[in-house]
Design goal:
12 helices, globular, 2% strand, mainly alpha
Length: 250
C-alpha cells in the first residue's frame, strides 16, 4: 500500500509540472498570436497557482490593455508577485514601474534596488540599467544617489559579455571604455578582477526583498528618532515634598 502511495506521489510531482508547462506554452502561443481571450483563460489559473511566467504575461496585458481593461496597478501587482519568485522579467518590470511611477507611486530607490537584485541573477537588461544608474547617479524627489563609476564599470562590462542583446552589449561596452579612461588604473584592475570572479547569485542567497529592507530601515529610524519616553524620576527630596503637599491639612 505504501509503495502505491509513493508511486502516486512521485507521478504527481513529475506529471503536474509537465502539464503546467504545457499549459503555459499554449498560453504563451495564444499571447504571441494576440488571441487574448484564450491567453487569459490559460494563463490566469497558472498565475493564481504561482507561475511567475504567467504573471508577467498577464501583467503585460493589463499594462497595455490587451484583452482586458488597461490597469497599470493590476499589472504592477502581477509583476511584483512574479518578482517575489525571482523571475528576471518580473523584477525588471517591477523596477521599471517604480522608476516611471506607472501603476505605483514613483520610488527611485526601490527601482534601483530591484534593478540591482535582478542584475545579481545575471540578467543582461537589469545589469545594464543598474549600471546606468551607477554611471549617472540619480537625483529625484524620492531618492538621491551619487555616481559610482567603479561599480558602473563593473556592471557595464558584465552586460557587454552577455549574449542576449548584442546592441545592449555594444552600448555597455562603449560606456565601459569611456569610464575606464576616467578611472584610476588600480580601480580598473580591482574591477576587472571582480568581473572575472563574478558569478550569478542563487535565488536563495539574494536576501530580503527591497521593500522589506526599506521598511525595516524606516522602523529603525522611527525608533531612533522617537524613543519611548519614560517619565523622569524626581529626586527623593522632591518626591517627599510633593507627597507632603498633597496631604490634606488637619
Amino acid at each position: 500500500m505504501r509503495s502505491k502511495i509513493l508511486l502516486f506521489v512521485l507521478a504527481f510531482l513529475f506529471i503536474m509540472p509537465a502539464i503546467a508547462h504545457a499549459d503555459f506554452l499554449e498560453g504563451k502561443k495564444s499571447y504571441d498570436n494576440k488571441n487574448w481571450r484564450r491567453a487569459i483563460v490559460l494563463l490566469r489559473p497558472l498565475a493564481e497557482q504561482g507561475d511567475a511566467r504567467a504573471m508577467v504575461l498577464l501583467g503585460n496585458m493589463y499594462l497595455d490593455g490587451y484583452g482586458v481593461e488597461r490597469d497599470p496597478t493590476e499589472a504592477f501587482m502581477l509583476y511584483r508577485r512574479g518578482a517575489e519568485r525571482n523571475n528576471a522579467d518580473a523584477m525588471l518590470a517591477t523596477a521599471t514601474l517604480y522608476q516611471t511611477g506607472n501603476g505605483v507611486p514613483t520610488n527611485t530607490r526601490l527601482a534601483i534596488m530591484w534593478f540591482e537584485r535582478c542584475a545579481k541573477t545575471g540578467d543582461q537588461s537589469c545589469a545594464f540599467f543598474y549600471g546606468l544608474h551607477m554611471y549617472q547617479g540619480s537625483k529625484g524627489e524620492t531618492f538621491d544617489i551619487k555616481p559610482n563609476h567603479v561599480e558602473a564599470y563593473k556592471w557595464m562590462r558584465l552586460t557587454a559579455r552577455s549574449r542576449g542583446n548584442p546592441k545592449m552589449a555594444k552600448a555597455a561596452d562603449v560606456i565601459a571604455e569611456k569610464l575606464k579612461t576616467d578611472m584610476h588604473y588600480k580601480d580598473v584592475e580591482e574591477a576587472d578582477k571582480a568581473i572575472v570572479a563574478w558569478s550569478p547569485t542563487k535565488a536563495e542567497d539574494l536576501g530580503p526583498m527591497p521593500e522589506d529592507i526599506v521598511n525595516a530601515e524606516k522602523e529603525a529610524e522611527k525608533e531612533t528618532a522617537d524613543p519611548e519616553q519614560k517619565p523622569e524620576e524626581k529626586p527623593a527630596e522632591t518626591q517627599q515634598k510633593t507627597k507632603q503637599e498633597s496631604q490634606p491639612k488637619q
